[in-house]
Backbone:
């Protein structure tokens, strides 16, 4: 089975790299839109549903960090979104958020694998009416969406999760080019594709096997799953996407499987209270893990495995007998702590989140396959081709219908 996981991981990451390379044939146009917005000092807004929301918000965070662009987190808080959706049609929720400030907006970034999400289309129409450029990241060939200004940046694949990974990677690398000490775009691309190819799929296969068994067991037995990033930043947004995958996508379409309880990083209300009361960055994670029980599953996303915050998080996870999994870039995996670690190649903080997102998607697919086997599927007989074919897009209504 480990060999199946290894072959699947290699095939999946190869497809992500191929999709990124396809998107980069038009990267100069995308960077041009970002540079024009930066030079004009206009505000940048961004919209997406599901995992796409984390992708576009990661881009906003990077645009602000790399180029100092004025950005606005248009996804709002869950409380704001739910409040507005109950009172007006959800299909207009993004457009209504955008409309009052449209005169200050120089670029709108949208992400939609289907290219048919009604609330995204409404926002694009509003931009067309006001001649605001749109950078639209979509799956397939991109013909399903046509902004009046700007461009459609298509992944060239209908596979939902490979598309999401390609979107985040391409958008991240394009935003990197806005940094004052920018390198040539071909250099940026080849360095990242080299890192993607350098992922040790033999070690990753062991990680995937253990993570799949742990997550599937947690879902079957109603145990908690934690996805935590003590250091924040773009990894926290990748963690939000990871948690969404485990809660929503892993059991999607598997009859009789209940979605698990997945606990992610603290909300803004929690975080502000934690840091107001306690300045230790590890305090929030220790507080969350104080509710954990033996055999709960804990995914810890870290930049440096040797940092005090990460070490305290691992210690808190192991102290109560959970099954901890550490994804990191720097430092050795914790030894003797009972945590399964996987070290990703050396890339920057924002590209690292794209690699972590791909690992999350791998875990999601293998877990869904394991859960499907419980319901009479091909137990133990899956091939890498079977796992590659387990695209979620056909299961989503948005892939086939233009309305929410």
Residues:
């Amino acid at each position: 089975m480990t060999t199946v996981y290894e072959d699947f991981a290699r095939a999946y990451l190869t497809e992500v790299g191929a999709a990124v390379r396809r998107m980069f044939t038009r990267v100069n146009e995308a960077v041009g839109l970002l540079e024009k917005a930066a030079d004009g000092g206009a505000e940048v807004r961004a919209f997406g549903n599901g995992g796409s929301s984390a992708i576009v918000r990661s881009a906003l965070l990077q645009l602000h960090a790399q180029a100092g662009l004025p950005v606005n987190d248009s996804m709002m808080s869950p409380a704001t979104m739910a409040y507005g959706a109950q009172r007006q049609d959800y299909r207009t929720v993004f457009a209504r958020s955008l409309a009052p400030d449209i005169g200050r907006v120089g670029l709108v970034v949208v992400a939609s694998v289907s290219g048919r999400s009604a609330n995204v289309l409404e926002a694009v129409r509003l931009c067309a009416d006001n001649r605001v450029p749109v950078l639209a990241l979509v799956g397939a060939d991109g013909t399903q969406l046509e902004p009046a200004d700007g461009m459609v940046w298509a992944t060239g694949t209908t596979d939902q999760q490979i598309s999401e990974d390609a979107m985040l990677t391409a958008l991240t690398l394009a935003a990197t080019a806005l940094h004052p000490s920018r390198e040539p775009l071909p250099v940026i691309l080849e360095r990242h594709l080299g890192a993607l190819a350098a992922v040790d799929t033999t070690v990753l296969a062991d990680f995937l096997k253990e993570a799949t068994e742990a997550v599937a067991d947690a879902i079957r037995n109603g145990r908690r799953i934690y996805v935590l990033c003590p250091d924040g930043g773009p990894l926290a947004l990748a963690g939000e996407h990871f948690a969404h995958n485990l809660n929503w996508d892993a059991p999607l379409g598997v009859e009789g499987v209940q979605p698990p309880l997945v606990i992610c990083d603290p909300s803004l209300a929690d975080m502000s209270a934690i840091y107001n009361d306690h300045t230790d960055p590890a305090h929030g994670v220790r507080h969350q893990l104080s509710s954990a029980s033996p055999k709960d599953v804990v995914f810890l996303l870290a930049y440096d495995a040797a940092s005090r915050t990460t070490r305290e998080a691992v210690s808190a996870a192991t102290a109560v007998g959970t099954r901890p999994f550490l994804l990191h870039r720097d430092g050795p995996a914790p030894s003797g702590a009972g945590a399964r670690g996987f070290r990703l190649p050396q890339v920057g903080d924002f590209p690292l989140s794209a690699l972590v997102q791909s690992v999350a998607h791998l875990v999601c697919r293998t877990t869904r396959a394991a859960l499907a086997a419980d319901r009479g599927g091909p137990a133990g007989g899956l091939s890498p081709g079977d796992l590659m074919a387990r695209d979620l897009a056909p299961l989503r209504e948005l892939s086939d219908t233009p309305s929410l």
The CA atoms of residues 242 and 333 lie 20 Å apart. The first strand starts at residue 43 and ends at 48.
